[in-house]
Amino acid sequence: MTEGSSREPDDRRICTVTTLWDSLANVRQFVARNLAAGADHMFIFLDAPAPEVRDYLEGLEEVTVVRTGKNYWHGRRPENLNTRQMANANAVSYLLSPFDSVRWLFHIDGDESLDIDRDGLLSSDAPAARLSVLESVSRAHWDGPVDRFKRTATPDELARLTRRGAIASPHLREYFHGHLRGKVGVRPTLDLRVGIHDAWTRAGERVEAERSPDWNVLHYDCWSSEEFLRKWASPMANRRAKLAGKRQQLQDAVNGVLETPSIDDEERDRRLMELYETHVADDVAALEEIGLLVTPRAEFHAYQPRGLGSDRDAVHRLLDRLVSADRGYFLSPRTNAHPRDLFEQLRRSSLDAELDARLAASLARPPATVTTTE
């Protein structure tokens, strides 16, 4: 519990869902960070075959891994990564909706970590919660762990950075290298949709999410020059979500270097590092001077996960049913395939008594009252 609190510990769980394709080393770090940061159980969808990663994840009690091959997508795999991510996130939200032991499901990427006050989150009755982004400082090399992050800057702070020459113009898109909006968590439900950065009603209205200064997501974007090369100059670059603006311009510049046949490896590396220093590396001195850097609180990263407890087997039995279901139930609401219809279909099949009772209770639960925003 947080200091000064007299509340009894809340035994409900916090889960995460992620669609990823990465190296075993990076996946190990991703899992370790999030389990220590407050996740009780992680649902990970492998976006491409990765036997070593799959074997590692399948050996962890606190992780459920799902392979997303041709059978998973029923031969209709969406080309857009964001579409695949949202389909997978919504599948897990619907999956967990019959289980009251799970209070929150957060949709995060493979280069992110929770940075949360668990007690504050578990005491909230909101249907959705916003995690504000803290982005890792980008420097060529780190002598120790990555522990300095940029908080969101005010307009005045952006202007000061611009005058210092640390950014090209006083806009957050010049300041942050990655996303600006942070990430969202929901109470698992059949009646809301989980997006990349927001929760939505099935009518397409954005749900207003509760916020707290102690609810953040750490974004380990291009925290070093090596990480920059991995993300921008490797096969991974072709599997990212669609880019826009200066990020697409940077990718075009990187591709231009990689596709120039007349230069040798040394010149190629020099040009790539020039792009990194010009467009990505942070002016750490300026950030420190203006007071924009924070260090995550150690107590938020010393958690012992509890897994899914006695619900684990039932969750996996229901997951087996959902994996074989039509993906249309998890895609855009424009498909007119409502997950309530799916649950009704499952109840008419040969479900065991426990799952049937859980699905019946989930269907009987009235939709959460939400406030929508522009």
TrEMBL record:
<protein>
    <recommendedName>
        <fullName>Glycosyltransferase family 2 protein</fullName>
    </recommendedName>
</protein>
<dbReference type="Pfam" id="PF13704">
    <property type="entry name" value="Glyco_tranf_2_4"/>
</dbReference>
